[in-house]
Amino acid sequence: MDYEVIQPSSVIRRHSRFQMKSVYGSLVFVLFIYFLTNLPSYVFDALEQLKESAYAHTVIPNLRDASFTEGRIIFGLISFFLQGAFLYGLAGIFLRTVRGSPFVTLNLFDGLLNGINKIFTYMGINLLITLFIFLWAMAFFIPLFLIFFGISLVGLGASTSYGNTFAFAALGTGMMAVLFAFSGGMLIASIPAYIKSLNYRLAFYIIYDNPNMGVMDAISESKKMMRGHKLRLFQLHCGFIGWALLSITPCALAVYKDRLILASLLLFGGLLALLPYVYTANANFYENLKRSRGAVPPINQYNEIEETPDGTRIEN
Question: Whole-angstrom Cα distance, residue 303 to residue 23?
């Protein structure tokens, strides 16, 4: 693939499949370890949900009397504190994949080995990106919710003039309207939030290539690079919809058969199977965008071997 020229999404996806073919198993294992780093938080969340279920006493005696709030908070904070460092490690591994450089599973922990100051930098990037996306979502959600809530109140006020019976019915209708306003507002607000999130998708690749860059500099550079290219990244992501549906089909069948534990395992397995493809394509998108702007990444290994249908191997 010619990185010096902006490539269509189909070419990026095709080249990503070729690049990850020889290291696919290693990438799956890396992502498996990445998910395990969040395991304590998942366990406490699962126990809290299990405590409220009808099967709580049959699984663990006295589970209903246990409290997992402290554990959820502590491990949630630890997980969030380290999340940025792991995202840095993932960015490095997938950049090495598309650049033809070797990697090992321990590269996932590169962010942790860079020192406490760098860990705070990676955490800051992750925190600000999360905050910016949340604020954009709220900027659209709050007005939408207030509009629908106001309409429901007007309808309720008009109905009360016809007596208590109508007022009681209107109250139920008003509550449904509020619920609809909340869910509809969140759904609509997720669209601009996703669009804005595309601005920040390159931040960890940028900080990996520029280790001395600050938090806001990395985020600002990501926004700068994505200017005029958000639609391209959206098109790239749309290409994974079919793969995503295929990966969750076994999970959906297990849910239909009321095998919830099996469904969870199948969903986890489906994500592990798909995400190496997605992450490799995202790294290729960054690489293509960066090199087409005239910037050469610091890892100077671009000896890419492509195989033609007749078996001939061509070095680019």
Answer: 16
pLDDT by residue, tens only, the chain of 316 residues: 667 778 889 999 999 999 999 999 999 999 999 988 877 766 666 666 666 654 555 555 555 556 666 767 787 788 888 899 999 999 999 999 999 999 999 999 999 999 899 999 999 999 999 999 999 888 888 887 777 667 666 655 555 554 444 444 444 555 666 676 677 677 777 888 888 899 999 999 999 999 999 999 999 999 999 998 999 999 999 999 999 998 888 888 888 777 777 887 888 898 999 999 999 999 999 999 998 875 544 443 334 434 444 434 344 4
Task: Provide the 8-state DSSP code for 239.
Answer: T
Q: Structure tokens of 85?
A: 């460092």
Cα gap 194→137, rounded to integer Å? 9
313 secondary structure, DSSP code: E
Phi, psi (5° rounding) for residue 205?
A: -65, -40
Token pair of 164 as six digits = 């208590």
Residues 6+ apart with CB under 8 A from 86: 34, 37, 108, 109, 111
Give me 135's structure tokens: 């604020």
Q: Are strands 313-315 and 305-307 parallel, antiparallel or unpaired?
A: antiparallel
> Which segments of the chain does DSSP mark as H helices, in order?
9-20, 24-36, 39-51, 56-59, 69-98, 110-113, 116-160, 164-197, 203-209, 215-226, 230-238, 241-256, 260-292
Tell me the two tokens of residue 142. Answer: 């709050």
The two three-digit tokens of residue 233, written as one number: 């990244």
Instruction: Collect all residues with Cβ–Cβ distance below 8 Å to 137 and sequence separation of at least 6.
Output: 186, 189, 190, 192, 193
Q: Name the nearest CA neighbour of 117 among 217, 216, 220, 214.
A: 214
Question: Rounded to whole angstroms, how far apart are CA atoms 290 and 229?
Answer: 12
